[in-house]
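Q: I'm writing up a methods section and want to include an example of the input and output format. Could you take the sequence below and give the corresponding predicted structure tokens, formatted cleanly so I can copy it straight into the document?
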Amino acid sequence: MHLLLDYTMREKPPSRARNQITASVLRLLERELFDEITITQICQEAQIARATFYRNFETKRDVIRYMLIRDIAQYQSRGYVPHDMQDAITDFFRYMPYSRELLKVLERNRMFSVFDDMYAYWEQVYNEEKDSLFPHDEVDDDYLREYFKAVPVGLLKVWTERDFRETPEQLAELLCRMLRRKE
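A: Here is the clean output for your methods example:
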């Protein structure tokens, strides 16, 4: 089982209240910036008591984090087995537009840091593929791993800023070229 999917399954299962809260946050984000939204507004929009919010989330940032982890867990749960690194990356970028609304919210609110939770997934991919990607590289493994984890999120951010202009195949090709580049 993938790390994020495992993490999500350990959390509370989706509930009607969680669904109401996440939908309310997305509706509010159509009108306001994230930092301007209050817990009170979220509760009013979701038509729930404040205590219900806090039974489900500690902070409003946790709502965004939950939506991202939920979407990534859905992606991972499909059971798709890529045949190589480029196929894995292409598949990832093909799937992410399904989260387009959330990605645009993250971009508009400069909140791509919530992708830190996704780094565990990319670290797993790195560990499985590092010998084929960097067979004779003399760069310290710790640096390579961090580079590998950060680059896909950076590309996703730019892709969102560009309103998903490039195809998933173009992004996968670009990322694979970057990862294989030798100085």
